[in-house]
Amino acid sequence: MGVSGGEEGARNGPCLMPGGSYQAYLNIKEIVKKVAAQVEDGPCITYIGEGGSGDFVKMVHNELAGIFDEWNRGELESFLVEITADIFKVKDEHGDGELVHKILDKTGMKGTGKWTVQQAAELSVTAPTIAASLDCRYLSGLKEEREAAAAVLKEAGMTEAARPSVDKKRLIDDVRQALYASKICSYAKGVNLLRAKSVEQNTYRASLETTPFVLSFTKFFFCFIANWLC
């Protein structure tokens, strides 16, 4: 079981992240709920999953913050990577534990991603990376459906398969490179979309090579080539 809260947790109740057998958790649920910190929404306790996943979650968020901090000092430096690192460090001001564990896994959208994918389709420009990110937002918004599907699969006996041991250092680098590649693809498809629109409208062509977006992509791309050659 992951236990978070430090001195304040000892005085006012900790944030508990139990793992192991779900049936075993049900047997002690009412007891540990009384031990956990109490906030407006109820006790600060969430069953995490099988095995040692409860204690694992407590450990992981600190390492994730460090990884994103490191990434933000290299070729992946960006506002989104920076704030992701910051989010992993934030403590819950109204309860115990880290805020990241209490953020609802459901997001909305303003529509710009949808408009971009629509324009790409109308102009016959492939934009799979951008479209995939939009699909993830759609799935994120279907929280009730996702939870219902998970319950059905669990009743059918489909549980998470045991993961084989992995080289953590290699896994982190694989994820970094995947993020790097996805940024390059997104930039490239954005430039292709601008180019296709300029051909259709015959209005953007003169300034296409000097727009901040294209200049940013050019710099980013040559940095990628330099790193790849090294």
User: What string gives the helices and strands in order?
Assistant: EHEHEEHHHHHHH
- DSSP strand count: 4
Mean pLDDT: 77
Can you give the helix content as a percent range?
55-70%
Q: Order of strands in the sheet with the most strands?
A: 1-2
Cα end-to-end separation: 44 Å
| Unreliable spans | none
Q: Strand pairing plus helix content: what structural class?
A: mainly alpha
Instruction: Please work out how many helical segments DSSP would assign.
Output: 9
Q: How much β-strand is present in the residues?
A: under 5%
What's the gyration radius in Å?
23 Å
Keywords: Gluconate utilization, Oxidoreductase, Pentose shunt
Organism: Coptis chinensis
Domain 6-phosphogluconate dehydrogenase C-terminal: 54-229
Family: Belongs to the 6-phosphogluconate dehydrogenase family.
Please, could you describe this protein's structure?
The chain has two domains: 103 residues, no CATH class; 127 residues, no CATH class. The chain contains nine helices and four strands; from the N terminus they run βαβαββααααααα. The chain is elongated and about 70 Å long. The two termini are 44 Å apart. 13% of the residues are buried. This is phosphogluconate dehydrogenase (NADP(+)-dependent, decarboxylating). InterPro entries: 6-PGluconate_DH-like_C_sf, 6PGD_dom2, 6PGDH_C, 6PGDH_NADP-bd, NAD(P)-bd_dom_sf, Pgluconate_DH. GO terms for molecular function: NADP binding; phosphogluconate dehydrogenase (decarboxylating) activity.
